Amino acid sequence: MITAAKDISDEAFLDAIRTVHRVRWESKGVTAETPLGTDNLYWIGASRWDIACVLEGHPEWCGGLEATDGESVTIPEKIVLAKAKRLIRRGLISGCGCGCRGDFQIRPVLPAAAPAPAPVPAP
Ligand SMILES: [Zn+2]
Known about the structure:
The protein is mainly α. The chain has one domain (5-106). It is built from three helices and two strands, in the order αααββ. It has helices at 10-27, 48-55, 77-89, and strands at residues 93-94, 105-106. The chain is flat, with a radius of gyration of 19 Å. The structure holds zinc ion (ZN). Zinc ion (ZN) binds at residues 96, 98, 100. The site of zinc ion has 3 residues, from loops.
């Protein structure tokens, strides 16, 4: 049961972001085979509500889809945001933890900066 941000592991949160992207892309007909640059392959960030649905075990609720039986997410939004803020601070995800949608994404691991070029000796 999730009652605090510490109850959500880093990997569970990152996995939830991946799942949101997959579910939402699939809902638009995008698959792994869809060529890049295709019009329907557009960026979709994972909102805090989407992530809560996945953490709750209901990825099918992503994108604002309502449960037909009136069941809904019970994880408090502030806990999802608190966990997101920690991961943003640590550089693991990008997005905004202010209380808006969030649009969380897993941050790519950038290659190390190239070493500075050696100074050119004076002629
Ligand atoms: Zn914001």
